[in-house]
Write a structure and sequence with these properties.
Helix content: over 70%
Structural class: mainly alpha
Number of domains: 1
Distance between the termini: 18 Å
Largest sheet: none
Shape: globular
Number of helices: 5
Radius of gyration: 14 Å
Order of helices and strands: HHHHH
Number of strands: 0
Length: about 110
Amino acid sequence: MINKDHLLKLLQQLDETLMKVDDKKDENDLEGSLEIIKGSYRKLLGITPEQKSEGFLDSILSKEALAFSELNILAELLNEEGDIYFELGEYKKSLIKYYQTRDIFEYLNR
């Protein structure tokens, strides 16, 4: 179980991350936005790029490796990443991120 102080810290860090992403988007620096998001997987959730390969989500959900609130944060990051890929015209990558987001929310609603 995640404690209240840790949750508040995670939410504050997520807010800061999303504000930085929005700033990069305003500057039309979508690649910079992606880099911020990719770095935040490790910073916020301890997920390394190597761990975030194909099938990582199934592994996380089956092992219940993240708490409910952490899964919500992961879904927010994946959704934001999907939005950026969509804006870049990388529709296949975008769709994958949206499916992963959906899978997390379906898991959380069980």
